[in-house]
Specification:
single chain, 16 helices, nucleotide-binding, globular, carbohydrate metabolism, NBD_C_sf, alpha/beta, Molybdenum Cofactor Biosythetic Enzyme, Chain A, 15-stranded mixed β-sheet, about 475 residues, kinase activity, Rossmann fold, ATP binding, 19 strands
Length: about 475
């Protein structure tokens, strides 16, 4: 049984960790190594929140070959492809991943580029793991002739205070480290789990196919005392898509790992990664950048007399607190969508008609307006049935956005499934530029010419990010 450090003050624990004596400012070395090569990092994002640590790159939502070519047509080393697989069942998730790899391999041969795939998942361990990693490895072998040496497990996400220490994954709550298995996220109706100790988590999620003893671990001692060379030597030994846990409590840790990974790639190894958002920033060599300012968003395309739109589909406790704070402390207009009515075929259309009518009037009057689903969580038996409920609710929010005749000054979407469906179905986005972050962990997209509303700030707010005042802070900034 692993020794946990849960419910202890975070600062005390972080201060007790070994000093990072091996680290220097190596982010620039990572950038140089990437820039000298034609190597591309392709991030398959299972919901739209994964761009929450990067900037000045593009995300595409269509993985047909022509769109992949457009995404890879410049000298940027990182491209995101929004798959939204977290909102689908296992069969559809497998189909999407296979199709993307097939098209990627074809385009890569045509453009003569090399690439690695990062499967960007949730920092609270939810999602189709190990399914997506297994499918990617299998399809890379079939379509590209690439044998995957191992896959890195890197759920650390520092912007939201998630750390991996001693092979256990923690998040900070009220200043204490708490194993993610002791949080509401582990009780997810579709992707729940019982342990945050990653070797046991991997065994549990694989149905026992991978035993915890087969998992490789790169510890904080390896990283901070052994440095790039120690991590590199460990990576060279990986074979047969072996799971490799990366412990990390800072970006310094990830930078050491990232440089070692790039060296191992040069030596002929090939890795997949199952990560949260922080590792992409490190491996992609992104510099720190200030948060996007209000004036950066007030372009000619967003000025006008219409109100801004805040759409809330996430039902986590954190989200509920955030929208309550917003409504308590601003004059934002509010419209509640009755979820039981949306799920009742006899009442769905009339409920949508009511909401759309109210929203048109408020936005046209220049009033910032929040639409939120009623807060009661409806759960039924079976993963597929719960996914169907989520998709039905998200589909109602999409219908609202599609109906709008006025262009909101800005759009904020709260929740992973919600923000993905609003982006792809509601707004029709095919390619968007990532401007940066509104606050820590909250990315800002800028819609392209093909979108329903062109040149509009689209702020993707994850359901599990931020404090009680976070939505309030962004809306005030935009106002």
């Amino acid at each position: 049984m692993p020794q946990l450090i849960d419910y202890q003050p975070i600062e005390k624990i972080l201060n007790q960790l070994p000093e990072n004596t091996a680290w220097a400012s190596i982010r620039r070395d990572i950038r140089k190594k990437l820039n000298k090569s034609s190597y591309k990092l392709i991030v398959l994002d299972d919901d739209p929140t994964g761009v929450q640590t990067v900037h000045d790159i593009y995300v595409i939502t269509d993985w047909e070959k022509d769109w992949i070519k457009k995404g890879l047509s410049d000298d940027r080393n990182v491209l995101y492809i929004l798959t939204n697989t977290r909102s689908y069942g296992a069969e559809e998730a497998e189909r999407i991943n296979r199709e993307i790899v097939q098209n990627l391999c074809s385009v890569a041969r045509e453009l003569n580029i090399h690439f690695s795939i990062i499967s960007r998942g949730d920092s609270t361990l939810r999602g189709h793991y190990p399914l997506e990693i297994d499918v990617l490895a299998d399809q890379l072998e079939e379509s590209c002739g690439v044998s995957v040496s191992g896959h890195l497990i890197v759920p650390a996400f520092f912007e939201a205070h998630r750390y991996t220490i001693g092979n256990t994954h923690y998040l900070a709550e009220s200043g204490n480290l708490v194993p993610t298995s002791d949080t509401e996220f582990s009780n997810d109706a579709v992707f729940g789990y019982s342990t945050a100790h990653l070797p046991d988590y991997i065994s549990e999620k694989s149905g026992g196919r991978v035993s915890s003893s087969e998992v490789v671990s790169i510890s904080l001692e390896d990283i901070r005392e052994g440095g790039v060379d120690k991590v590199y030597q460990t990576l060279l030994k990986a074979e047969n898509n072996q799971p490799i846990i990366i412990n990390a409590a800072s970006y310094q840790d990830l930078d050491i790992v990232s440089l070692a990974v790039l060296q191992a790639l040069e030596a002929g190894k090939h890795f997949l990664s199952r990560t949260a958002a922080s590792f992409v920033k490190s491996l992609g060599g992104f510099e720190n950048r200030p948060y996007v300012k209000a004036e950066d968003l007030q372009t000619s395309g967003t000025k006008g007399r219409y109100g801004g739109l805040i759409i809330v589909g996430s039902h986590t406790k954190k989200t509920t607190e955030q929208i309550q704070s917003l409504m308590d402390q601003t004059f934002v207009q509010k419209i509640e969508m009755n979820v039981p009515k949306l799920l009742d075929p006899r009442e769905r259309d009339s409920e949508l008609h009511r909401v759309i009518g109210e929203l048109e009037v408020k936005l046209a009057s220049g009033l910032d307006t929040v639409i939120y689903t009623s807060r009661g969580v409806i759960k039924v038996e079976g993963k597929e049935e719960n996914l169907h409920i989520s998709q039905s609710i998200s589909g109602a929010l999409v219908a609202v956005v599609q109906s709008l005749a006025v262009k909101p000054r800005f759009i904020i979407a709260k929740g992973g499934i919600t923000s993905s469906d609003i982006a792809t179905k509601g707004l029709g986005i095919k390619k968007a530029k990532i401007l940066g972050q509104a606050i820590a962990g909250v990315p800002v997209w800028f819609t392209g010419s093909e979108a329903h509303f062109q040149n509009t700030p689209y702020i993707v707010f994850p359901g599990n990010v931020g404090n009680r005042e976070s939505i309030l802070e962004i809306v005030r900034n935009l106002q």
